Structures are given as structure tokens and as C-alpha cells.
Automatic annotation (TrEMBL):
Pfam families cross-referenced by the UniProt entry: TMP-TENI
Organism: Pedobacter paludis
Source organism phylogeny: Bacteria, Pseudomonadati, Bacteroidota, Sphingobacteriia, Sphingobacteriales
Name the UniProt record assigns to this protein: Thiamine phosphate synthase
SUPFAM superfamilies to which the protein is assigned, alphabetical: Thiamin phosphate synthase
Ranges that cross the membrane: none
Thiamine phosphate synthase/TenI domain residues: 10-191
Keyword terms: Thiamine biosynthesis
This protein's GO CC annotations: cytoplasm
């Protein structure tokens, strides 16, 4: 089984920090997993970002995951991809990238999670947990019971897939979420827009370990 961190930090297009600066701050705070999420740039601009972030991640021993853009595999030091398309064929994607690359997927229902587990995904981002401006969508908001039931049913089916809650998660949500039996959380806005970025990251890191 591949290494999957319990706290996934996700970069985002924000006015006050570039993606590279976000990655640098996250690594300084102790991040061991960074998901570069940029859907607004050309391939050349994406690769410029990714090369710079990969250097930062290499310095700190941090895993670099890229959201979507799987066509960039092999063009930079990328350890994996997170695919947001809930209908994506992970069997085909796995054949395309091979077994060494980490592949994560997004899900909103238990059925989504089971399919990803059966199609060789390495982890799943399940959400949204609450409304988020970082990634607006029309998917149903999930409850603590939804996370608990998903983790329980997955275990009953003898399916092993790390579940991370995602979508509008604040620090005060983490303890209750972790008690549902999920593996961890993915966070962007609550860290990026905090008064103290590094302290916010450290607070989340401590919370997921409880």
C-alpha cells in the first residue's frame, strides 16, 4: 500500500499568495503532502509551477500530487494525481500511469467510493462536508453519519481505501470527523485564508492525529 498522509493540503488560486508560495509555506509548517490544484493555466505555466513546487517538496521530503492534468505525467517530478471527475475510468488511468504513481479520486456517495476501491484508486476525497467557495459545486452536503456509514460499510465489504473528508472543513470540524472512522482530511481555504498560515496548518496537523 502506498503512503497516504492524513492531512492533505491543497493549493488554490488566491490573490495574496502564488501556488509556489503556498507550497513553500506549507512545507515550512511541516506539510508532507501537497496537492497542487490549478485549473486556470496553460500547460507551460502549469509545468513552471510544478517544477518549482517539486523542488520545494524535494527539499522537505513532501509528496506532490497534481489535481487532474494527468497528461503531464512524466514531464515533472510528480508523485501522483487527484482526479476530480467522479465518472473517470480509474482502470484505464491506472494502465496509463502505471502502479508507482499515486491515484486519488473524488466521491460524493458510497457507490462512488466502492467503485474507486474496486478500480485501484489509492485514496478518495469524499465530500463536500460543508459549503466551500474554494470549489463550488452542486453535490449534496455530507453529514458525519454519512462518513461513519461509508467507513463502516467499506470495512464490512473488506475494501481498504483511505477516506479523506473534503470541502469547507474548519479546524473545529476535525475531531468529530476523525471519530467517524475516516482516514484524514483535505484542507485549502481554512489554511490559505487564516491570519497565520503556518499556525493554521500546524493546528490541523495536530487535530488529525487525535
Amino acid at each position: 500500500m502506498k503512503y497516504i498522509e492524513k492531512l492533505h493540503y491543497i493549493t488554490h488560486d488566491i490573490p495574496n499568495l502564488t501556488h509556489v508560495e503556498q507550497a513553500q509555506k506549507a512545507c515550512e509548517a511541516g506539510a508532507k503532502w501537497i496537492q497542487y490544484r490549478c485549473l486556470s493555466k496553460t500547460d507551460d505555466a502549469l509545468l513552471a509551477d510544478i517544477h518549482a513546487i517539486a523542488e520545494v517538496c524535494d527539499d522537505w521530503g513532501t509528496t506532490l500530487i497534481v489535481t487532474n492534468h494527468i497528461h503531464l505525467n512524466g514531464k515533472a517530478d510528480i508523485q501522483g494525481f487527484h482526479i476530480e471527475d467522479m465518472d473517470a475510468d480509474f482502470i484505464a488511468l491506472r494502465k496509463k500511469v502505471g502502479n508507482d504513481i499515486t491515484l486519488g479520486g473524488s466521491a460524493n456517495t458510497f457507490e462512488n467510493v466502492v467503485r474507486l476501491a474496486n478500480e485501484s484508486a489509492d485514496y478518495v476525497g469524499l465530500g463536500p462536508f460543508s459549503a466551500t467557495e474554494t470549489k463550488p459545486n452542486n453535490y449534496s452536503i455530507l453529514t458525519l453519519d454519512d462518513y461513519h456509514n461509508t467507513a463502516k460499510k467499506l470495512k464490512e465489504l473488506n475494501l481498504s481505501l483511505p477516506i479523506l473528508a473534503v470541502g469547507g472543513i474548519k479546524i473545529y470540524h476535525v475531531e468529530a470527523l476523525m471519530r467517524t472512522g475516516i482516514y484524514g482530511v483535505a484542507v485549502s481555504g481554512a489554511i490559505n485564508f487564516a491570519d497565520d498560515f503556518i499556525q493554521a496548518y500546524e493546528d490541523f496537523y495536530e487535530a488529525v492525529k487525535l
